[in-house]
């Protein structure tokens, strides 16, 4: 089943779907065609009338991450492929909130995507980010102690001083794992910045999340110069 082409938030809202699965991809990435086929098969099971879906049908769509910049920026998509599982929030003008994000190595196994869609099917529409965060704190998934935060900030302080210029990216300069990281590496080469340190945020979720607050910048890649 072909995926719907989504180019703006308006396309999402006009679908009237309470749940959505979006593939943010790019023509140049070799993994995107395979993921489109997997999503197409899942769409046959869960799209349409919504008989197998609580609270309505699921919209399965694809987004060109590099041209639909409004959507990429809104949902903080900084690498391709990225798959977002979304829930409509009726209390917030029908805007969508992210239920789950899949990217990088998590997409190497198609069963990961299948299980994520199954979780979306069972997820109650209207669950808020605050409720999910509270549940994560209660379960211990999020550590709220000041000692843990202080330790992370101390670690980040060392990382940003690894060199005069430090690039926090997805992948490595030799093997970037998203188009945006690849573009920054090329820009550094063009500007003759030949000596710099890099850190692959896909290998460390603690750094990936903590640096956003530490640097007060929500997306990647990030360049830090000291």
TrEMBL record:
InterPro entries: Glutaredoxin, Monothiol_GRX-rel, Thioredoxin-like_sf, Thioredoxin_domain. Residues 14-96 form the Thioredoxin domain. GO terms for biological process: intracellular iron ion homeostasis. Residues 165-224 form the Glutaredoxin domain. One of its GO terms (cellular component) is cytosol. Pfam families: Glutaredoxin, Thioredoxin. This is Glutaredoxin domain-containing protein.
């Amino acid at each position: 089943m072909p995926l719907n082409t989504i180019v703006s938030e308006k396309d999402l809202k006009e679908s009237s779907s309470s749940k959505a699965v979006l593939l943010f991809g790019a023509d140049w990435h070799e993994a995107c065609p395979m993921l489109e086929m997997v999503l197409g098969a899942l769409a046959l099971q869960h799209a349409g009338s919504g008989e197998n879906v609580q609270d309505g049908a699921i919209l399965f769509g694809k987004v060109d991450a590099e041209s639909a910049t409004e959507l990429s920026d809104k949902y903080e998509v900084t690498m391709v492929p990225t798959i977002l599982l979304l829930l409509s929030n009726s209390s917030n003008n029908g805007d969508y909130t992210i239920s789950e994000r899949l990217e990088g190595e998590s997409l190497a196994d198609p069963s990961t995507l299948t299980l994520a869609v199954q979780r979306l099917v069972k997820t109650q529409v209207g669950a808020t980010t605050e409720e999910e965060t509270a549940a994560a704190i209660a379960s211990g998934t999020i550590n709220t102690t000041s000692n843990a935060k202080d330790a992370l900030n101390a670690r980040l302080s060392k990382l940003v001083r690894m060199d005069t210029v430090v690039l926090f990216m997805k992948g490595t300069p030799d093997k970037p794992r998203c188009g945006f990281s690849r573009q920054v590496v090329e820009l550094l080469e063009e500007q003759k910045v030949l000596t710099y340190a890099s850190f692959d945020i896909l290998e460390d979720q603690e750094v990936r999340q903590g640096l956003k607050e530490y640097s007060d910048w929500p997306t990647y890649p990030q360049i830090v110069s000291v």
